[in-house]
Amino acid sequence: MNRDNDRSSQSPAGAPRLRSPERRQMELRAMSLDELIGDDHVARLVWAFTARFDYAPLLDAVAAREGSAGAPQTDPRLLVALWLYATTDGVGSARALARLCEHHHAYRWICGGVSVNHHTLSDFRTGHAEWLDAELARGVAGFLQAGAITLDSVAQDGLRVRASAGASSFRREPRLQDLHKLAQERVQQLKQQVQDDPAAQSARRRAATERAAAERLARVEAALAGLPEAQARKKRNNGDPARARVSTTDPQARVMKMPDGGFRPAYNVQLTAETGLRLVVAVDVTISGADQDALEPMQQRVASAYTQTPGHWLADGGYVSREGIDHMAACEIPFLAPIAPCMRQDKDNAAATAWRARMDSAAGKELFKLRGQTIEWVNAGFRRRGLYSVNVRGIAKVRAVALWHALANNIACMIHNPSLRHAAPA
After folding, report:
1. CA distances from 280 to 37, 188, 371 (A)
2. What is the DSSP letter of 389?
3. For the CA atoms of 349, 354, 355, 360, what is the dihedral angle to 10 degrees?
4. Predicted confidence band at 426 (pLDDT cuts at 50, 70, 90)?
């Protein structure tokens, strides 16, 4: 017998019974926001970590007070936790974060029923760099006091981050002068239009147009103000100062050589981490593509933040200079970095001679291995969390973004090292 014909004759005539989705049916669920995430969720760890911060400077700036008029402001503790968790999650856009706060369980749990908008999130992210820096140092100092980490050795490296400016926005002085004149004329033209016919545009549209013209003028004036520094840097590098260029979009950004070998507008984010558990201990941002200029300022930043002096300072060959070696010797910090071929040995002083001997010794070579194990791991974490480019402008705002990433790095270290959770400062 033909089996196919047999199955065909036995098949039912009715339609198949299926379980299909019905999305219009109503459901009633009794649950709290606290049940949205598990007990071991990273969002809970972030909230516990941020609860140890000193919020007094942020709370003192809140204008809404009990007994006086004014709408209540969003709790800064909530905003800090949101941005720290978003940074660990690779979210760097205020608009994207605002959308997540409406739909994503972890972000809804952090919000706890408080609504936030992207304007509040954006302003908060870049408006408190000094407070973030103080909390980063306070956290590391607490770990030092608890004995969880030491500063027996620290490693420094630079991370070039693409700026929020196009290459075509860089102009030389003659063109900047022309743009400045045009921007001034545009502002005056708008003022004259209001005097001639105040009813020609709605008040809202007129205000937006005037604000855009004023911002354009301010950016060009900032570019002109930054031109002398760019010309001086060009001259130091044996270039023609007349060919120095500054961006009209982000006047503080500078064209740098990127890791892929190309040249783009960027900032140089400087990081220093202790080699034990890879906690970031200090962050700085420069507008120089060369790392040599960042060694001394970073050492001074670490010295001002902590009472303990690093036992050794590890860096790559880009930080090697006679000035830097002398500075570290004066601070009594043993400096370890690859011996540069351009450093002529016949011109060595006592500090350079000691540096060469340190790098030639077996102990020095073994210690220097910690540099790559530490700072390259930290850099990779920053990249993994999305710090390839920034969507903010100006060195102060870029530094604030870098500090969020530094705190996120230290949270990642706490996740990998549970003993740090109990040693965190209260």
Report:
1. 29, 49, 13
2. B
3. 130
4. low
- Together in a domain, 305 and 338: yes
Task: Check: CB of residue 199 under 8 Å from CB of residue 301.
Answer: no
Chain centroid offset of residue 3 CA: 69
Distance CA 306, CA 175 (A): 46
**In a shared domain, residues 227 and 204:** yes
Q: What is residue 17's three-state secondary structure? A: coil
- Encode pLDDT of 25-67 as tens digits: 887 777 788 888 888 899 999 998 898 899 999 999 888 888 8
Q: Which alpha helices (DSSP H) does 23-75 contain, by range? A: 42-50, 56-60
- 67 within some domain: no
Q: Which of 208, 224, 247 is the last residue of a domain?
A: 247
pLDDT band with cut points at 50, 70 and 90 for residue 418: confident
- Measured CA to CA, the distance from residue 245 to residue 292 in angstroms comes to 22
Class of residue 396 by CB neighbours under 10 A (exposed 0-12, middle 13-18, buried 19+)? middle
Share of the chain above pLDDT 90, in %: 62
Give the range of the structural domain holding residue 215, as residue numbers without chain letter: 168-247
Q: What is the pTM of this model?
A: 0.88
The single-letter code of the amino acid at 288 is S
Does 80 share its domain with 140? Answer: no
Quick one: 390 and 306 in the same domain?
A: yes
**Contact (Cβ atoms closer than 8 angstroms) between residue 78 and residue 110:** yes
CA 120 to chain centre: 18
Residue 17 has pLDDT above 90, yes or no: no
Q: How many domains does the chain have?
A: 3
Within this chain, do residues 334 and 384 fall inside the same structural domain, yes or no?
A: yes
Chain segment 206-255, per-residue pLDDT in tens: 888 888 989 899 999 999 998 898 888 888 878 888 888 999 999 999 99
What residues have CB less than 8 Å from 51, skipping those under 6 apart?
77
Give the residue from 311, 365, 362 showing the smallest Cα distance to 338.
Answer: 365
Q: Chain centroid to CA 200: how far? A: 44
pLDDT per residue over 153-212, tens digit each? 999 999 999 999 988 899 999 999 999 999 998 888 888 887 777 776 777 888 888 889
My answer on whether 230 and 142 are in the same domain is no
Instruction: Round to the nearest angstrom and report the end-to-end CA distance of the chain.
Output: 83
